[in-house]
Design goal:
Layout: H1 22-32, H2 37-54, H3 61-78, H4 84-91, H5 95-103, H6 105-108, H7 110-130, H8 134-144, E1 156-157, E2 160-161, H9 165-175
Antiparallel strand pairs: 1-2
Helix pairs in contact: 2-4, 3-4, 3-7, 5-7
Length: 179
């Protein structure tokens, strides 16, 4: 049975965003920060280019600490969520180099320690952001605090614990379930 037309059907040309009022769309985009995403990320790109041009071949503990701190300060100032990829971009290093810093502390020393501390800051930021959602809290309990949800099945007979397997066989026979 065909559906009755209750107004104007949308076509592919007018579907989606074109059906949302302009005022609502602007409010949504600004509210979620999507409008300014590239304007927040572009300075990290420019910083990476600057680091690449001026890099002298070796991070000292002090210069690496300062560079990492500058990244977090920048994120806080412009409202950008810190991430490993953003940190790598600001330091002008690749993912494989950063991963090596994380995995091989005996080889990279202070770089490994600082990378792991940065990971903690990034993780803590995500935990803080997600704590307002119950499902995120459950996820946090499971992944970070070892919480395990279990179900317990209690097999009893008339409210009494079954101790003897022969009692179970007897009950099955009495109920006629043995066939």
């Amino acid at each position: 049975m065909p559906r009755k037309n209750k107004g104007v059907h949308t076509s592919p040309a007018t579907a989606g965003v074109k059906n949302i009022p302009e005022s609502h769309l602007k409010q949504y985009i600004v509210k979620n920060g999507e409008e300014n995403a590239m304007t927040k990320i572009l300075p990290l790109w420019e910083q990476m280019l600057n680091v690449r041009q001026n890099y002298e071949g070796k991070w000292t503990e002090e210069t690496l600490e300062l560079a990492m701190n500058e990244y977090f300060q920048y994120c806080e100032a412009v409202g950008l969520k810190p991430s490993k990829s953003g940190l790598q971009l600001s330091l002008a290093i690749g993912t494989s180099q950063y991963n090596d810093w994380e995995r091989f502390p005996e080889k990279y020393g202070f770089k490994s320690e600082l990378a792991l501390l940065c990971n903690k800051v990034i993780e803590n930021q995500y935990i803080y952001q997600s704590e307002k959602f119950p499902s995120a809290n459950l996820f946090l309990l499971r992944t970070s605090h070892g919480h395990i949800e279990t179900s317990k099945l209690d097999v009893t007979s008339n409210g009494k614990e079954i101790i003897n397997p022969e009692d179970v066989a007897d009950k099955i026979k009495k109920l006629g379930l043995s066939k």
